[in-house]
C-alpha cells in the first residue's frame, strides 16, 4: 500500500481519475496473459505524456517505489506482473500516431498506440510496417518494442528490432533520453536504441518511437501444403530456404493444432493431416508466381500429399488468420495453455520437432507445436490444468528439457516472447555467467536502485505469489518468496527498506 502523501503526489501529476488504488483495479493489473503468475501492485497510474511519465518517475525514485510499465498485457513471459508490488504504469493513454513521414519512410508514435491501428494507418498511405505479432489486434507498439516482438513475416522482413531507429525514454531518475532519429546511418557512440529494444522495461520507460517503413508489396498469394508426417514438413521448410527462396510467411502446424484450429476457424483444413505448412509470398506478381511454383515442387518432392494455392486474396487471408488463431483455438482444449517459443537454426527444425515429441512422451504431457517455421521459431504449447500441481510439474520439466534441446541445437530459449520472469532461471544457459554479469552491470548503470520492472531477467527462481488485499494474508499460491518478501506477502525491494514510499503500517501485509 502506498503512503497517502505519495498517492497525493501521483494524483497531482495525472489527475484524480488517472491514479487508482482500489482493490478492483489492483486485481485487474496483477497479471498479464501468462498463465500461473499473479502479484498485486500497490497502485496503477495512466500518464498522458512524456512529461507526466518523467514526473511520476521522480516521485518513485524519491520514495524507492518499483515501477512496471505496461501496454496491453498480452506478453507470455510474465513480463509485466508486478512481482515486487509498487506502481503499474499503463501507457495506453499515450496512443497518438504523431507522424507518417513519406519522404523519409518513417513513422513516429507514442508507445501506447495499438499495433493493428498503426498497421492500418501506415498501409492507407501505400507504405508497410512488416512486424506482425499474432496479438496485433490488442497489443501496443511499445510492448512490441520492449520485448523485441516478431511475427509471421519475420522470415523475409525481420522483427521489431530491425525497424526501430529512434526512441524517447524516461530513465529511472526521471531524466528523458532520446536516441537515434530519422536516419539511415548513425554510428555516433553506442547504439542505445538497439540496447533498449527488447529490454523489457528493465532499463527505461519507452514513451515515443520512430520506425522505418517500406513500400507496400503490390501482390500477395498464399498456399498450404499438407503432410502425412511431421519430419517431412520440417524437411520441406529447410529445403525451401536452401533453394534460396524467402517466403513472406512460412508457418507450421501439427495435427493437434490443425484439428483445433479448424474447429475454431472452419476454413476447410484437413484435420487428419499430421502437419500443414501455411506459406505466403509477396512482391512482384511474376516473381511471386514463380516462387510458388518452385515451392510447390519442393513440397511434393519432400512428401506433401496435397498442395493448394489460394484462388483469391480473401482465401489466402483466411488461411493466415486461421494460423493467427492457433493459441486461442488451443486454449479451448484444457483450462490452462502454456505457450513457449524455443527457437533453432532453420536447418535444425526437423530435429527440434522430434525432440519436442520425445520430451512430451517422456513426461506424459500433451504438447502441440506450431509456429514460424521459416525462421526456426517454434511454439511448443502445453495443454494442462493449473489445478493439477503434479501435471504442472511435469509440464515444467518438459519445457526445461525443450529449452535445453534448443540450446544444444544451436538455438535459444526465446525467439520473440522475451525472458521476463518465466524464463529468467534459464537465461544463463544461453548467455553464460559472463553474459549475466555484463547484463547486470548494464542494469545497474541505467537503474541503480532496481526500480524498473524488478524480478525480471535475473530471477533465481520462478515465483507465482498471489498477494491478497487483506493485511497479513499468506502466500496463496505456494510460490517462493522473492527479495524483500515474507510469507505474509511483503513486497519491498529489500528486507530493511524503510523509505520506499509505502505505508509502514502495511509492511508485512499485502
From TrEMBL:
Feature: compositional bias, Basic and acidic residues: 499-510
Required cofactor names: FAD
Compositionally skewed regions (Gly residues) per UniProt: 475-492
Gene3D superfamilies: 3.30.465.10, 3.30.70.2740, Vanillyl-alcohol Oxidase, Chain A, domain 4 (1.10.45.10)
Molecular functions per Gene Ontology: FAD binding; oxidoreductase activity
Record key words, sorted: FAD, Flavoprotein, Oxidoreductase
Renumbered residue ranges of the record's region Disordered: 469-510
Sequence ranges assigned to domain FAD-binding PCMH-type in this UniProt record: 37-216
Family: Belongs to the FAD-binding oxidoreductase/transferase type 4 family.
PANTHER family: GLYCOLATE OXIDASE SUBUNIT GLCD (PTHR42934:SF2)
Designated name of the protein: FAD-binding protein
Upper classification of the organism: Bacteria, Bacillati, Bacillota, Bacilli, Bacillales
Amino acid at each position: 500500500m502506498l503512503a497517502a502523501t505519495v498517492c497525493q503526489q501521483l494524483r497531482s501529476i495525472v489527475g484524480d481519475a488517472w491514479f487508482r488504488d482500489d482493490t478492483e483495479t489492483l486485481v485487474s493489473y496483477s497479471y498479464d496473459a501468462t498463465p500461473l503468475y499473479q502479484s498485486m501492485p500497490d497502485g496503477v497510474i495512466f500518464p498522458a505524456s512524456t512529461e507526466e511519465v518523467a514526473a511520476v518517475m521522480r516521485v518513485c525514485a524519491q520514495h524507492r517505489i518499483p515501477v512496471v510499465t505496461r501496454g496491453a498485457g498480452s506478453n507470455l513471459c510474465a513480463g509485466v506482473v508486478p512481482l515486487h508490488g509498487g506502481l503499474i504504469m499503463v501507457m495506453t493513454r499515450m496512443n497518438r500516431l504523431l507522424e507518417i513521414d513519406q519522404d523519409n519512410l518513417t513513422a513516429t508514435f507514442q508507445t501506447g498506440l495499438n499495433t493493428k491501428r498503426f498497421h492500418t494507418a501506415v498501409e492507407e498511405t501505400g507504405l508497410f510496417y512488416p512486424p506482425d505479432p499474432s496479438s496485433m489486434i490488442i497489443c501496443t507498439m511499445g510492448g512490441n518494442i520492449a520485448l523485441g516482438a516478431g511475427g509471421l513475416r519475420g522470415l523475409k522482413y525481420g522483427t521489431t528490432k530491425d525497424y526501430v531507429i529512434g526512441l524517447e525514454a524516461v530513465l529511472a531518475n526521471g531524466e528523458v533520453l532520446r536516441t537515434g532519429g530519422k536516419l539511415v546511418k548513425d554510428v555516433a557512440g553506442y547504439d542505445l536504441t538497439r540496447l533498449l529494444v527488447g529490454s523489457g522495461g528493465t532499463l527505461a520507460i519507452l514513451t515515443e518511437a520512430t520506425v522505418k517503413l517500406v513500400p507496400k508489396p503490390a501482390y500477395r498469394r498464399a498456399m498450404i501444403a499438407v503432410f502425412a508426417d511431421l519430419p517431412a514438413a520440417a524437411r520441406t521448410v529447410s529445403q525451401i530456404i536452401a533453394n534460396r527462396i524467402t517466403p513472406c510467411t512460412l508457418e507450421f502446424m501439427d495435427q493437434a493444432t490443425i484439428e483445433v484450429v479448424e474447429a475454431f476457424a472452419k476454413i476447410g483444413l484437413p484435420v487428419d493431416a499430421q502437419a500443414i505448412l501455411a506459406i505466403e509470398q509477396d512482391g512482384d506478381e511474376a516473381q511471386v508466381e514463380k516462387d510458388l511454383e518452385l515451392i510447390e515442387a519442393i513440397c511434393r518432392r519432400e512428401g506433401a500429399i496435397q498442395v493448394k494455392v489460394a484462388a483469391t486474396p480473401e482465401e489466402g487471408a483466411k488461411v493466415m488468420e486461421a494460423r493467427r488463431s492457433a493459441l486461442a483455438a488451443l486454449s479451448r482444449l484444457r483450462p490452462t495453455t502454456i505457450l513457449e517459443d524455443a527457437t533453432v537454426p532453420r536447418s535444425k527444425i526437423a530435429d527440434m520437432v522430434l525432440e519436442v515429441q520425445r520430451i512430451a512422451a517422456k513426461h506424459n504431457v500433451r504438447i502441440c507445436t506450431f509456429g514460424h517455421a521459416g525462421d526456426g521459431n517454434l511454439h511448443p504449447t502445453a495443454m494442462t490444468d493449473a489445478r493439477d500441481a503434479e501435471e504442472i510439474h511435469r509440464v515444467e520439466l518438459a519445457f526445461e528439457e525443450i529449452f535445453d534441446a534448443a540450446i544444444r541445437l544451436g538455438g535459444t530459449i526465446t525467439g520473440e516472447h522475451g525472458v521476463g520472469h518465466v524464463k529468467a532461471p534459464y537465461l544463463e544457459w544461453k548467455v553464460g555467467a559472463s553474459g549475466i554479469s555484463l547484463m547486470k552491470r548494464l542494469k545497474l548503470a541505467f537503474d541503480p536502485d532496481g526500480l524498473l520492472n524488478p524480478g525480471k531477467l535475473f530471477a533465481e527462481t520462478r515465483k507465482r505469489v498471489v498477494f491478497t488485499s487483506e493485511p497479513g494474508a499468506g502466500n496463496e499460491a505456494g510460490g517462493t518468496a522473492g527479495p524483500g518478501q515474507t510469507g505474509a506477502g511483503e513486497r519491498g525491494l529489500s528486507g530493511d527498506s524503510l523509505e520506499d514510499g509505502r505505508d509502514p503500517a502495511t509492511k508485512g501485509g499485502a
